[in-house]
Amino acid sequence: MTAKKRKFQETLLWILMIILCAALVWMLWVYIPERLTRYMFFAVLAGIFSLLAVWRTGIRRQMRGFSDDLCEILDSLIDGDPGRWPQSYEDSLMAKVQGRLLKFYDIADEARRESSRDKQTIQVLVSDISHQVKTPMANIRMFTGILKEHDLPEEKRRQFLETMEGQIGKLDFLMQSLIKMSRLETGTFVLKPEEARLSDTIARALSLVWNRAEKKGISVDTECDSQITVRHDSRWTAEAIGNILDNAVKYTPAGGSIHVQVRPWQIYTRIDITDTGMGIDPEHYNDIFQRFYRANEAAGEEGVGLGLYLAQEIIRQEMGYITVKSAKGKGSTFSVFLLS
Q: Of the candidates 56, 14, 22, which has an alpha carbon nearest to the alpha carbon of residue 42?
């Protein structure tokens, strides 16, 4: 309702009240002959009008004070300084409105912070992607130019083509990781858990890293009863365990070892993946599961810092969790807990 319309309605109401009162005075004057009685009625009527006027003035003053206080609160929230107007816990209309406004401000402020964090994450994502893409793209471009402009021996051409294939594989791995991350965060993929042998899932995960482990001379052994079954999505669980194993192979020096042990508990089934790699500082236990996090010691290794993040999100979707225990320079143990 506009201010002009409100003013018009208020004026109309007062006119109607004056007409009604005038009619009442006329009726009293005509039908009440005693002069004293008339004066008494007039006095009562004047008193009622006086009280109405005082009441209206008080209400207007209260409304003016309420609007002034409300404007001050809004100004403090607009300036980003809610503490300038400390919250009142009185049982009053102003306190209720103030509480709702402060709650709305907290929600809006948290949304703004989350938006800022998302922007920073996107900036880091773009930076990481451009950094990861730059090297293989430059290599592919360079080798393509050499193959086009030079007449090379067949053996040399084959080596260049194999190198280009490896660079293309890196790009494909990056794109696939980003797609998986996107699907996990937007909830566009659905797990299909079913009762299945855990040994088959672990074998599937090991197949993803076996060749790399052999090339580095890393021994991999497992300890898993073939009769242990868990309700899980074998494909995605193998993906999660495979990412942990991939990190273990990546950060374990040549000649090291990786041990996988499965132990059924009352509520969970525990899968321990132990390596003899570089280890992790305890203060970074939570950081390693963040998107695109890479420790300074891992800067020389390939990767974008998505493996453990994807692993944790997959296991969470299955109502499980992952823990880590490590000692710097002595290796790490990642424990995956799946509901039995």
A: 22
